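Section 4.2 – Deliverable D4.2 (structural model, holo form)

The reporting period included a commitment to supply a predicted holo structure for the target in complex with 3-methyl-2-oxobutanoic acid. Inputs used:
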Amino acid sequence: QKRVTVADLRRARREGRKIACLTAYDAAFARLVDEAGTDVILVGDSLGMVVQGHETTVSVTVDEMVYHTRLAAAGRRHALLMADMPFMSFTDPAMALRNAARLMQEGGAEMVKLEGGAGQMAVVEQLSVHGVPVCAHLGLRPQFVHKIGGYRVQGRDAASAQALCEDARALEAAGAEMLLLECVPVSLAAEITEAAGIPVIGIGAGAACDGQILVLHDVLGITPGKPPRFARNFMPGHERVGDALRAYVEAVRGGRFPAPEHGF
Ligand code: KIV
Ligand code: NA
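Output (structure tokens):
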């Protein structure tokens, strides 16, 4: 079976087919996520929380991302494999290039994701020029948790909504292949998706995005504590993990997830 490529993702956006994405951090789950028909597997730095048990993602290192990307690569067959650039791993273009190269060459990733706005244009340009496909993560950026003072919806007032639209435009112009919007109002996410020329993936960003992503542990209902409002546990009604993952993929493809209650 053919691998999913960035060209396939662009075509899906053009043709209005929803893109289904999930995280995975090891071979066993990457295999299940892949077999469920997921288009993109993200080795997210959320592993700092859901795998390592930390309170935030800020302690995750490049070595750890490379390790988990390699594990996920071993279980993946069909999906495009994307890996997160962890906190402080892309503070200048040369460093970003070095670390992205490790995720691709040692880890086996085909795309990297980084949290950033227009301030990361030089980094995205450098990666793009050297053949590294970049997904720019906008809106709520969990690596900024200590600067924001918590996890909350972004782009609620006119000024920050305007800034988000400009960030999206700037990053696309810098060469980003994909955008990811986390926790932004449904109407703003729809506006950014409409204006973009590249696929836009949402998490807590409403149904108008070109695709959706959730953290695997939230989909399986095994995240300790209260799940985020934008997530949905797909396990109820299913006996097997694979069936729940397939239900998620089908709900995204069929436009049944996210529902209005998952949005802001
Ligand atoms: O690290 C992660 O899992 C992510 C997704 C929530 C988008 O960045
Ligand atoms: Na992340």
